[in-house]
């Protein structure tokens, strides 16, 4: 199978329109494994762990078994896919999203390994000087030359809920400062809404702030100007599995002002 077939150029728009077919993950009842299971796993072959997994519904051991089944099924149904990925990657999309387990980007987009380069953190916050997200963005834009950056928030976000509350959370407190700034700037509106509505609105405002931060990065501005890199702000509706696009487009004047203000050269 050719690389072009594996990574069609218009894939981002195709999976946005196809989101209604995506099913949300069914609720998981987690049963903690007894300590003996873990001790057994560390000293016995994987095949024995799979046997344990069959008798005990621990998600990790079950997932190990499912991985073998998935690898075999993928090799059977798409014999070229994994072999081509072993050679390299050419993702067209950089996804920046929340670490939340309910938002697995490749699954909800209906895509495959190799399709999406990913950075996820708590509440999909972009701090301008954060080394981790900045390195991912730099690599994705400059070296992988992705065509789209998707910044996704989601409904019922725990990080957003934390920033809408006042409980002390240790290291999470400085991390959540950008969300608290949004709260401060929109206090009256947020206080007039129900908890769910406030969570969704703050999630959207956070996406808009993140898009703004993205467009303050020289590497991103350069790619927008020179090769048409596009930035998308979206909200993922956890209860329906549907992505909703936010209008985060700039006017030509706004883009010009950003280029003058933020673009740097070697
Ligand atoms: Zn979240």
List keywords for this structure.
266 residues; alpha/beta; Beta-carbonic Anhydrase, Chain A; 2 domains; five-stranded mixed β-sheet; 15 helices; globular; binds zinc ion; lyase; zinc; carbonate dehydratase activity; zinc ion binding; EC 4.2.1.1
Structure commentary:
It is a single chain. The chain is α/β, with parallel strands linked by helices. It has two domains: 29-88, no CATH class; 89-266, Beta-carbonic Anhydrase, Chain A (3-Layer(aba) Sandwich), CATH 3.40.1050. The protein contains 15 helices and five strands. Strands 2-1-3-4-5 form a five-stranded mixed beta sheet. It is globular. Bound molecules: zinc ion. Zinc ion (ZN) binds at residues 98, 100, 123, 154, 157-159. Residues 98, 100, 123, 154, 157-159 line the site of zinc ion (ZN). Reversible hydration of carbon dioxide. GO terms for molecular function: carbonate dehydratase activity; zinc ion binding. Belongs to the beta-class carbonic anhydrase family. It catalyses: hydrogencarbonate + H(+) = CO2 + H2O.
